[in-house]
Sequence to fold (266 residues):
Amino acid sequence: MKKYILITGSTDGIGKLLAIKLAIEGHQVYIHGRNQDKVTKAMDEIKAKSRNETIGAFVGDLSDMNAVRQLAQDIKAKVSQIDILVNNAGVFMSGSQQSANGCDMRFVVNYLAPYLLTHELLPLMNQSRDARIINLSSAAQSELSYEAIMGRQHTSVNALYAQSKLALTMWSFYLAQQKKDMIVIAVNPGSLLNTKMANEAYGQYWSPAEKGADILYDLTIAEKHKKHSGEYFDNDSGRYARAHSDAYNNDAIRKLIDFTNNLISI
Ligand SMILES: NC(=O)c1ccc[n+]([C@@H]2O[C@H](COP(=O)([O-])OP(=O)(O)OC[C@H]3O[C@@H](n4cnc5c(N)ncnc54)[C@H](OP(=O)(O)O)[C@@H]3O)[C@@H](O)[C@H]2O)c1
Fold:
C-alpha cells in the first residue's frame, strides 16, 4: 500500500539512499535538507533513479528552532497525512559548536529538532491508521551532562554526539509510551557507514552506506517491526538490543523531557 513518508536529512547519506528505495516502490516520499540547491539536486537524482515524479521536498535548517517551526508549517500547508516519519538528519562535526540558544549543536540538530518537529507534525501522523516514527540513534550513547550540553563544561565532540543520541533514544521510548497508537523505534543503522558523516568524523568507514539504508527500509515498511514500539534496533548485531541504561530510567527521562519542554517552550 502506498505510504506517505517524510525523511529528514535526505540530501545525502543513508537518508537519500532510503528515499530512492522507497520512491522506486511508488511511495509518496517527501525529502528534506537545509540547503535549497542540494535539496533540488537530490530531488532530481531521486526522481531519475526511481522514475517516480511525485517526490516532494522541504527546506529547513534543524539547528534553528524557529526554522524547525517554519518547516513544520510548510509541511502542514502541503501535506495532509504522514504515515512514516524518519528522523534521520544528524550532525557530528559542526562548523559552529553551539546554536543560538547556547546549546551544543549536536544536541540541537540530533535531538531537539526531531523532538520539536515530531511534536508539530503529530496532527498529520494522527491522520494515519498505521503511523511509524523511526529515530536515528547510534551505538554511541552516553549519560547526559546538562552542563556540557549548555556549553558550561568542556566535553569532547564524541561525548556530545553520544549524549545527543542517548537523548533521542530516551525520548523515543518515552514517546512510545505516550503514543500507544503509533510505532516508535530507535535504531543504530550500523557503525561507521560510508557516508559524509563517518568520513568527516573518522576519515574511514567499516561498512557500505547501503547497510544503513537497508535496515531503515525494513524498519519503515516491514510488518514484523510493529510489535517493537519503544525498542532499540542495533544494526551492528542485526537485532533488537538493550540501549544505554538511562533509556529505561524514568527519573532521567522525566528530567530530559522537562529540560526539553522548557528549552523550546511547549
Ligand atoms: N554514518 C554512520 O556511521 C552512522 C552511524 C550511526 C548513526 N548514524 C546516524 O544516521 C543519520 C544519517 O547519517 P549519515 O551517515 O547518512 O550522514 P550524512 O551523510 O552526513 O547525512 C546527514 C544528513 O543530515 C542533514 N543535516 C545535517 N545537519 C542538518 C541541519 N542543521 N539541518 C538540516 N539537515 C541537516 C545533511 O544535510 P547536508 O547534506 O546539507 O549536510 C544530510 O542530508 C544521522 O542521524 C547519524 O547520526 C550514522
Observations:
- The pocket of NAP is lined by residues 9, 11-15, 33-35, 38, 61-63, 88-91, 109, 136, 138, 188-189, 191-193, 195-198 (CB under 6 Å).
- The longest helix spans residues 157-178.
- The chain has one domain: 4-264.
